[in-house]
Amino acid sequence: MNDIIKKAQQIGINPSQNKGQNFLIDEEVLQGIITIADIKKKDQILEIGPGFGVLTRELLYAGADVLSVELDKKLAAYLKKEFKDNSHLQILEKDILSVSNQEIFKALNGAFRVVSNIPYHITGKIIKKLVSSELPKPESAVLLVQKEVAERVCAEKGNMSMLALSVQAYACPRIALDVDKESFWPVPKVDSSVLVIEGIRETLRTPLCPPLVKGGKGGEASLEKGGEASLEKGGEASLEKGGEASLEKGGEASLEYKGGNFDEKRFWQVARIGFSSPRKQLRNNLGHGLRIDQGVVSATLESIGLKHTVRAQELGVDDWLGLITALD
Questions:
Q1: 244: closest CA among 201, 208, 203?
Q2: In angstroms, how far is CA 49 from the centroid of its own chain?
Q3: Cα separation of 139 and 112, whole Å?
Q4: Domains, the chain
Q5: What does the H/E/C string look like for the chain?
Q6: Which sign does the torsion angle of CA 5, 11, 14, 16 carry?
Q7: CA–CA separation, 23 vs 117, rounded Å?
Q8: What pLDDT score was predicted for residue 204?
Q9: What percent of the chain has pLDDT over 70?
Q10: What would the mean pLDDT of 49-63 be, rounded to a whole number?
Q11: Residue 25, by phi and psi: left (phi above 0), alpha (psi -120 to 50) or beta?
């Protein structure tokens, strides 16, 4: 920590809340992220908000080719000086939200992954940019984010949101590690988590992911003393070779969506209308927003096995796919 503070003083950096600047200072957490990311030599990695280059250095040491996007001019200048002799690092002084995925793809010469401690004030926007709004998409992402955001992304039926749907419709998210707020300088108000988003697809995801691994006794992610990221008590979800979603130790797998050509614009149009008033029943939102008789919506919901009183947050990706197919 003292080293980071000293560097900040030397280059005149006063951490900005407006830029979401909370620098990781916990070596054990840092090594945990590298373990979770499973970096291989020549991996193409996008890093967002590298700060003082603590994670950057470890990514390079693991053999990755890295594109680091840093908005802060002083930090960008520091990084360019600190890593001036490393040919495997590119530093782009820009706002990540102004950089297209196509630019990233070209800079890294092809398919890429994301490993980052991302700025907390634009976490949701970054996640949507990477997973659901632009092409080409990264293959996967390992992101250090607010714990609350990670939990929202990994929500299950009953607690879904547009953020959760926008990720789960294209990828399989999980929380790999919980991180105490004392692991950062300055200390933020909330704890964090390492969010892993795997199997990112360019089109709506089929077959569906296995059920999410729950925290607590069912298999909470933790960092052991040796620095290894592990899943404590069984219950690990996995995809078998055949591509079918399965759960190894109990539990039922989601069914594969077997529809034909699917209109993604229609999917998101209906989903946004469905979430427009979360406290209202879905039949009310869709009836009003789509100008469909509520009785028709109720009958459609029941035809796919849902209660006519259901609310948007109670539907998973499979339910939305089935509902929109039935409505059309």
A1: 208
A2: 15
A3: 6
A4: 2-205 (3.40.50.150), 264-327 (1.10.8.100)
A5: CHHHHHHHHHHCCCCCCCCCCCEECCHHHHHHHHHHHCCCCCCEEEEECCCCCHHHHHHHHCCCEEEEECCCHHHHHHHHHHCCCCCCEEEECCCHHHCCHHHHHHHCCCCCEEEEECCHHHHHHHHHHHHHHCCCCCCCEEEEEEHHHHHHHCCCCCCCCHHHHHHHCCCEEEEEEEECHHHEECCCCCCEEEEEEECCCCCCCCCCCCCCCCCHHHCCEEECCCCCEEECCCCCEEECCCCCEEECCCCCCCCCCCCCCCCHHHHHHHHHHHHCCCCCCHHHHHHHHCCCCHHHHHHHHHHCCCCCCCCHHHCCHHHHHHHHHHHC
A6: negative
A7: 8
A8: 87
A9: 83
A10: 97
A11: alpha
Q: What are phi and psi of 30, to 5 degrees?
A: -55, -50
pLDDT in tens, 183-195: 999 999 999 999 9
Q: Which two tokens stand for residue 319?
A: 């339910």
pTM, two decimals, is 0.84
